[in-house]
Amino acid sequence: MKSRLIGGIAALVLAVIGTVMLVNYVSNADRRAQASLEPVDVVVVEKPVPAGTAVQELSSYVRLRPMPSAAKADGALTSLDLSSGKVTAVSLEPGEQLLGSRLVDPSERVTPGAVRVPDGMQEVTILLPPESVVGGTLRAGDLVGLFVTQTDPANQQIASTQLVFDKVLVTAVQQAPTAAETTAEGTSAVPGGSSFVTLARNSTDAAKVILSTRTGNIWLSKQSATTPESPKTPVSTAGIFQ
Fold it and tell me: How far is Cα 91 from Cα 111, in angstroms, rounded to an integer?
């Protein structure tokens, strides 16, 4: 009799504890659900935003939109107040939440198809025909050798060509589109347009590149990181067959 009484009391206590725990769990779940439904203001893109748009110009492209906190994306901005001076790193599409990672300092933004300029370098752009840029196959990030051809001021019939710089970093290439990608025979079409090739050099080298475009012709060769340093010996028209 006594053992049955004790067992009944124990069962009652366990039932009470279980009920309390269940009530607490349901109560906490309700609070969590209510918290996830609490609205927060999120910056949402309303119109297409071009890459490089300054934050101070974004007001006409975005607006604050209330949404449940559970729907807020990680890193989504609730205000533009702390992003002054930044620009959009990429283009933005309507309906997307504006993430903080999409805004960068203007100096950190890299144009598509371009590479970052190494510290201490500056960019200089030259216009070259297709045959001078490895048939128009150069791309940003390539390394090139820069050859310069000049005529002898004292004798215009004598010209010389010399490798001036090795392993020059190409930071950007802009090319006129070709009329066709391939010929009817399936071979590559001959490039028909010139290219703006941007190179990274220090100020003195950049001056040499600019002067070479004014007084002679530039020709680029494609190199790699393992291309050995070449002797910078000029070759003249008088010495081609020597």
Answer: 11
Mean pLDDT of 159-171: 94
Domain with CATH 3.90.1210.10 in the chain: 39-108
Q: What is the pLDDT of residues 36-57, one digit of tens each?
A: 567 899 999 999 998 888 898 9
HSE, CB side, 13 Å, CA atoms: give it for residue 141: 7
**Both structure tokens of 166:** 């090795």
List b or e across 51-87, with b for residues whose CB sees 16 or more CB atoms inside 10 angstroms.
eebebeebeebbeeeeeeeeebeeebbeebeebeebb
pTM of the predicted protein model: 0.55
CA distances, 187 to each of 100, 160, 182, 191 (Å): 46, 34, 5, 12
Task: Give residue for tokens 């128009």.
Answer: 136
Domain 39-108 in CATH 3.40.50.10320: no
